[in-house]
Amino acid sequence: MLAALDPRHTVAPPGYSRWLIPPAALAVHLCIGQVYATSVYKNSLIARFDVSQTAIGVIFSIAIVMLGLSAAVGGTWAERSGPRKTMFTSACFWAAGFLIGAIGIATRQLWLLYLGYGVIGGIGLGIGYISPVSTLIKWFPDRPGLATGLAIMGFGGGALLASPLSRQLLSLYDPGFDPARAGAVASSGALVGLFLTLGIGYFVIMMFGVFNVRVPPPGWRPPGFDPASVAQKPMVTRASVSAANAIRTRSFWLLWIVLFTNVTAGIGILEQAAPMIQDFFRDNGVSAVSVAAAGGFVGVLSLFNMAGRFVWSSTSDLIGRKPIYVLYLGLGMVLYVLLAVVGQNATVLFVLLAGVIISFYGGGFSTVPAYLRDLFGTHQVGAIHGRLLTAWSAAGVAGPLIVNGILDTQGKPGTLTASAYRPALFTMVGVLAVGFIANLLVRPVPERFHEPDTGGAVPVAPAEKTDPVALGPDSRPAAPAVGTQQARLWISWALVTVLLGYGVVQTLTTAAKLFTE
Q1: Which distant-in-sequence residues (6+ apart) come within 8 Å of 13 by Cβ?
Q2: Helix, strand, coil proportions of the chain in percent (round to 5)?
Q3: How distant is the alpha carbon of residue 141 from its chain centre?
């Protein structure tokens, strides 16, 4: 089995369907997206270890920091090793994180939870996040935005799946646990059972992706696709740039600023979503929005986040990457102003404005790999993407610090009103303005940074000869039987559709409380 992970054995045979690759990527991203559902069992962990909220919140922070670091450090290795080996490695680290975390909960050793879910699981997060990206772009040179949007949509959908699943598993393992009751705490046995179930279950699901993923053979292109049509676009390079050279370019750092500002602004709303909607509609100390309805608002934002990752990234294939970021950042500034000025006038208006803002937040994540492909080519786009994700780690710290710091000067939690949020929202307008200017300054990469063997050449294949995963026709398996491949397509898409559909239905049920209570 380990030999099957070798890059030489991942080259697709003739006739291999490229539509097997998106569900392979989704199988990974739907699993690692669980990192955004840790709040479900946060109170239970606090009770188990008898520590502060900060002590438990550090687990999530460690995981996100390790995501950025492992993506940046391991990006080049991921390109060299191929998608199958890196996705398998991600599955091992991600599952091991849960299993070690379960031991930590069972033995009441908090440091094991830090080490397991935070450090080891965080490494799995980073490697898993970037591993399918360059492969998808090579299979979909005609529609890179659609391809990466499909995969990264799964990361947003992972929380939709994990949140209701975790609540139901905790209730199953601890019949006395009522997830609908505020402050409910599950037993330590239920927490151990949850971590073991998620670790094993996610590993199995990720294996579907591992054994379906392939890279295209040298010279492959989609039927009817003319590489010259891509080369005619002004912001799309006809060359390839290495990861080492990419970080020496001005365009890389301008795009780092673009991603940092877009994430900083969006994460500020996400982090404060539930209390924010309650505060906006507070009168005489009483909010018109209940706790359950505020939870529904969080669900609505999750749906906008997930949908934006696919819709806006796919749209970028039609209008271009720079124009779509003009939309994210330019219209985003307008929406933040409207949210600050008129957001308190009606619940529907508030939800709509916040939802579109968060859709831009999600779209920014899914469009950036295609933007990188346009600027730097496909040669080491996964490694370049990994380095760029350090902007996410930085924004994950900056966004909450800015919003929470400003709100701390406005009054105590539970007593704030819409006016208390205006300084924070107008600050985010300024943050987005910086990103807007940076995006306008992005230019094609100068020729001196191009790889000497591909500079100026029209790309004739998504898998360049510099890729070790594209070596050797003798390493390719036989062409798959038509019936067998159709069955794999149906099974693969059915699996991810059922998982994602379960999360969407559960979230819509929760979100309905926002308008019915």
Answers
A1: 476, 477, 478, 479, 480
A2: 75, 0, 25
A3: 21
Average pLDDT of the residues in 155-173: 89
Residues with Cβ within 8 Å of residue 272, at least 6 apart in sequence: 403, 404, 407
State both tokens at 123. Answer: 């490494």
Compute the distance between CA of residue 357 and CA of residue 316 in angstroms, rounded to an integer.
Answer: 17
DSSP state letter for 233 = S
Between these two residues, 111 and 35, which has the higher pLDDT value?
Answer: 111
Which phi and psi angles does 89 have, rounded to 5°?
Answer: -60, -40
Q: How many residues does the chain have?
A: 517
Is the Cβ–Cβ distance between 130 and 389 less than 8 Å? Answer: yes
Alpha-carbon span 155 to 132, nearest angstrom: 12
Shortest CA distance to 376 belongs to which of 450, 278, 308?
Answer: 450
Q: How confident is the model over 76-95, as a mean pLDDT?
A: 92
Contact 296, 514 (CB under 8 A): yes
Is residue 160 within 8 A of residue 303, CB to CB? The reply is: yes
Average pLDDT over residues 410-431: 86
The closest alpha carbon to 24, from 503, 488, 498, belongs to 488
